[in-house]
Design brief:
Length: 350
């Protein structure tokens, strides 16, 4: 774990992000705006137009995006996309993609399915560097570039890069319960691609990409749950029954206390997961699985309880609680349900 205290920097980043997202409430946060805020380039080297920061700062943005239930391509394009690009050997194309992502002129998506915790590679490139294969439920699949982890004829794994507008590539929107997320079925049929090599072991690289996905979703779930608790407490302080605020009733206080405890436990797990990913902890897989499993389940429970505590108005479209509950429900399912992650933890202990 790092000895440097970045809490003040993170507090400022959190405050700026909250202000920006508050002004964009209800709107899609486009690639250009994300780049203008400096968020797409957080983990991109300064010589490539980025900030040279770490996953710790990316995690702060993920939490704030969850708090605002903002629609953006950040999970697929930055948490996964930039994370993958940073694991590849330097090349003209890789460097150009980092430049364009940092500048907001392009967005990338990683061709991995978010349907399950672990998934086999479904892409292959032939000797002529042509890509074939498909992946369902690709997060932010309608990006500028597709980065598809693919198997060569000799069995080695590389990353095939191709523009999604290529005639041999098909991107089909897949509607899901949460309208703030964009998922797509992506396929390619003999698409000519450029190949990018991993700097290290490809299997370890893909594990890192998935760990980043688990972490990003855990941070998002933490943010939306914290927002639900804040909103609920504020509502309970003004809604009156029998001549006093309903927040003064003991049963209501207990419900809010339970929500607070769940969020506090989640924050500890998420903080440990952020440190594990940032520091390259050998036990990172277990740490992020714990955070993803607990945060996903917790957020659904907190959002559901918030809807109940809001009473009848909580079930209306205008209250907005439904947006948090839907996002929490999808976060719980993406890249593995809590049951899948707990099963992996149990298996690892044997």
């Amino acid at each position: 774990m790092t000895d440097v205290d970045f809490s003040e920097l993170h507090d400022e980043l959190r405050s700026v992000a909250g202000d920006l997202l508050g002004k964009q409430a209800g709107k899609e946060i486009g690639t250009e705006l994300l780049a203008q805020a400096g968020w797409t380039g957080l983990e991109i080297a300064e010589e490539r137009g980025g900030a040279g920061a770490t996953v710790r700062e990316t995690a702060v943005i993920c939490e704030e995006l969850g708090r605002a239930v903002a629609r953006s391509g950040y999970l697929g394009g930055v948490v996964l996309g930039v994370g993958l690009l940073n694991l590849l050997q330097p090349s003209d194309l890789r460097d150009r993609l980092l430049d364009e992502v940092a500048g907001g002129t392009a967005a990338v998506t990683v061709g991995v399915s978010a349907e399950h915790r672990d998934a086999e590679l479904t892409w292959a490139v032939d000797a002529d560097a042509r890509l074939r294969g498909a992946a369902p439920f690709v997060v932010d699949g309608a990006a500028t570039w597709l980065l598809a982890p693919a198997t060569r004829p000799d069995g080695t794994v590389v990353v095939a890069a191709v523009r999604t507008e290529a005639p041999e590539v098909t991107v089909s929107d897949q509607p899901v319960v949460d309208e703030t997320r964009s998922l797509a079925a992506v396929s390619a049929d003999q698409a000519p691609v450029e190949l990018l090599e991993f700097s290290g072991d490809p299997a370890a690289g893909m594990a890192t990409v998935r760990n980043r996905a688990y972490l990003g979703l855990a941070c998002d779930s933490l943010g939306l749950a914290a927002a639900m608790l804040d909103d609920t407490v504020a509502y309970l302080g003004v809604r009156q029954q029998f001549g006093r605020p309903i927040g003064s009733f003991q049963a209501v206080k207990h419900a809010c206390a339970d929500m607070l405890v769940q969020i506090a436990v989640t924050r500890r797990l998420v903080t440990a997961a952020v440190d594990a990913v940032a520091d390259g902890d050998p036990d990172v897989g277990r740490t992020v699985a714990m955070a993803k499993a607990y945060a996903g389940e917790m957020a659904v429970q907190v959002a559901g309880k918030a809807m109940q505590l809001h009473g009848g108005i909580g079930y209306t479209w205008e209250a907005g609680v439904h947006a948090y509950l839907k996002r929490a429900t999808l976060n719980r399912a993406l890249f593995g349900s809590p049951a899948e992650h707990r099963a992996s933890l149990t298996e690892a202990r044997r």
